[in-house]
Write a structure and sequence with these properties.
Layout: E1 3-13, E2 16-27, E3 31-35, H1 42-50, E4 55-64, E5 67-68, H2 74-80, E6 82-85, E7 92-96, H3 97-107, H4 117-131, E8 141-142, H5 148-162, E9 166-170, E10 174-179
Parallel strand pairs: 6-9
Antiparallel strand pairs: 1-2, 1-4, 3-10, 4-5, 7-8, 9-10
C-alpha cells in the first residue's frame, strides 16, 4: 500500500524556520485537510514536497513508499506522483491543453520511446467525458482567458490524465493532500 511519511520535518525559508518538527502519515485512499492561519506552513509543506529550491529542509525526512523524496530532483518527484495545484494557475499562451498534456506524458517516458498519439487522445477524451469537459477545451491555450472554475477543472483534468498518485492543493487558509 502506498504511503507518505513525514518525520520530524524542519523547514526554513530565507533563514526563517517555518515548519518545526512536523510528523504526518498518509496512506493510499486517504484525504487529509491541513488547516491553519496564514504563515503556518501549509504552502511551505506542499512546496517542500514538490522540491521548490527556495525551501531548505534543515531536519527530518519525507518518505514516499519508504524512499526519501528529499534526495530526488523536482522532476523525479513528479514522476513518482507528486502533483501540486495552485491557487492562481499560470497561463501559457500559445500552448494548447492537448499539447501541454501530451508533452508532460512524453517527458515521463524512457528516452527514445514515443507516446502513442491515438492512445493519448483516447485517454484524454475518456477523462474529459468523466469530468464533463467539452472537446474544444483541448484546443484552448493553457489557462489563457479561463475563469477561476475553468482553471480548477483544467488542473483536475491534468491530474486525471497524468494519473498522479499524490495530490497537494494549496489555498490561503487550507491545504489538502490526497493519496489515490
Amino acid at each position: 500500500m502506498s504511503s507518505i511519511v513525514i518525520r520530524d520535518l524542519h523547514v526554513s525559508v530565507a533563514g526563517k524556520e517555518i515548519i518545526r518538527g512536523l510528523n504526518l502519515t498518509f496512506s493510499k485512499g486517504e484525504v487529509h485537510a491541513i488547516m491553519g492561519p496564514n504563515g503556518s506552513g501549509k504552502s511551505t509543506l506542499a512546496k517542500v514536497m514538490a522540491g521548490h529550491p527556495d525551501y531548505q529542509v534543515t531536519g527530518g525526512d519525507i518518505l514516499l513508499d519508504d524512499a526519501s523524496v528529499l534526495e530526488m530532483e523536482p522532476d523525479e518527484r513528479a514522476r513518482t506522483g507528486i502533483f501540486m495545484a495552485f491557487q492562481y494557475p499560470m497561463e501559457i499562451p500559445g500552448v494548447s491543453n492537448a499539447n501541454f498534456l501530451r508533452a508532460a506524458l512524453q517527458a515521463r517516458l524512457p528516452e527514445g520511446e514515443e507516446l502513442d498519439v491515438t492512445e493519448f487522445y483516447q485517454k484524454l477524451y475518456e477523462k474529459m467525458d468523466l469530468l464533463e469537459i467539452r472537446r474544444e477545451f483541448t484546443a484552448r491555450s493553457v489557462n489563457e482567458g479561463f475563469s477561476g472554475g475553468e482553471k480548477k477543472r483544467n488542473e483536475i483534468l491534468q491530474l486525471a490524465v497524468l494519473s498522479r498518485s499524490l495530490r497537494c492543493w494549496t489555498r490561503r487558509t487550507a491545504g489538502w493532500i490526497s493519496m489515490l
